[in-house]
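Per reviewer request, we include the raw input and output of the structure prediction for the construct analysed in the revised manuscript.
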Amino acid sequence: MYNILVGGAAGQGIDTTVSILEKAFKKSGYFVYTFRDFMSRIRGGHNFMVIRFGNEEITSHSSKLDGIIALNEETVYIHRDNLKKDGFILCDSSLKGDFDAIRIPMADKAKELGNPRVAGSISIGAVLKLFSVELEYAFDIMKDHIKKDYIEINREAARFGYDSVECRYPHTGGGYKDYMLISGNQAVALGAIAAGLKFYSAYPMSPATPIMEYLSRHGVKAGVVMEQAEDEIAAINMAIGASYAGVRAMTGTSGGGFSLMVEALGLSGIAEIPVVVVNVQRPGPATGLPTRTEQADLRFAIHASQGEFPRMVIALRSHEDAFYQTARAFHIADKYQMPVIILSDQYLGDSTSTVQMYDLSRVPSTAPLVSCEDDEGYLRYRITDDGISLRKIPGKGKYFVTADSDEHDESGAITESAEVRRNMADKRMRKLEGVVKELQEPEFIGDENFDILLVGWESTYGPIKEAVKILNSEGSQKYGALVFGDIYPLPTKLLTAKAAMAKKIYNIEQNATGQLAGLIMEMTGIKCDGCILKYDGRQISGEEIADRLQKLLRKEGL
């Protein structure tokens, strides 16, 4: 397994270089996982991306580097301590720092070719040669990233880079050529399309904006209307309005935008209009760290908006999970006529991974759940045993379809009756009884005869999976883990069974307060023995989890 870092300042073309490289590695048969770390600025600063690739599944990033492609000296000095003893640094000949490196006259050659921007293609060619990957893979990909008039000059630059170095590592890939390479945000967009999404509204907010960008590029072909709203309040109200009119609708944002959406979330709850809301989390409060990652919105999502009404919160665990859970979110929202909140984060949303082609047979039916037949005695909010009343499309038939943000009776007429209020509140909350029956238990990872149980949720899935593999290969104690996708209502059956077997339980989260551990304690009475928390805006890795847990256990005498 190999691990290379490409680093430099914003504006130096890092993203294009990495996008071509990761696709070339994937096309050559490698499993690829790319982690992105960038600052909130258009020019300058220090950005880097790490491409990890090999001939087996990869679920987390790593800080142990086989190579550094440095577009400036700062990249070398920041990351060279993570370079393996036999690792390499690749840079332009103009970088004269006190470090050994493969120096290629990239800038001079780019000027000779007539375009200084092709220096990135020189580095692409050199890296592919170092890892014994055919240059033709990059040539095939360039047409998707570079304007037609500049493709040939970039290919010439890549040939120069390829011829400037010798092969260093053998090519060992081959099994993943037919897989997809996709980001978490793209997987959400595709899952929504597969579920029958017809309307998406959003205001641009990192790190959720790529969902909007993807739907903007591909929405026409998919039959999706993508509307850039003036703010997040308008975005969610537009989505609710589209859903009321009878189509599947979604909105997406990050924590600050979700804060603006919470009143309308309550409108979805009391009016019983389904809507899917995606919150791609970043550190808060307020602006926080706009381009970093965190898992601090769990409690917020569970309790967002005043009053009590049913909702479901689904956390996305991987690039595969993001597709299927997003599609499932629409099914749950429509079936129970309530909001479903999807939680992702910057790490999962912006990272890319190799995944198997998605299986559309696993997507719940996209048939509309809105009924159109006439019914003279139609009551929009008829009280039922399961809390679900028949939905109809407004403007069709002889009936009148109401929707109200005030408390109302079965017909939708505003009321202040204490009895009607109680009956309506009970009706809405009964929906959760059905939702609970559809909950998916957390995924178990590791040794069935474990001593130590780890719990986590959302994007910690991949790092926890790698950590458990590391821990079970090194120590005498055995480790298992439960990673939650469905998180509210909290599925408790498997958790209760596994907790009873554990000598110790440790919680892994990307927040400062251990929100999942608190939720588990609240819902089950099960108390974690300790927490490994990270909340500096950077994602925890499998290696870091294993290292910190081992230190914690030694401190506790275990």
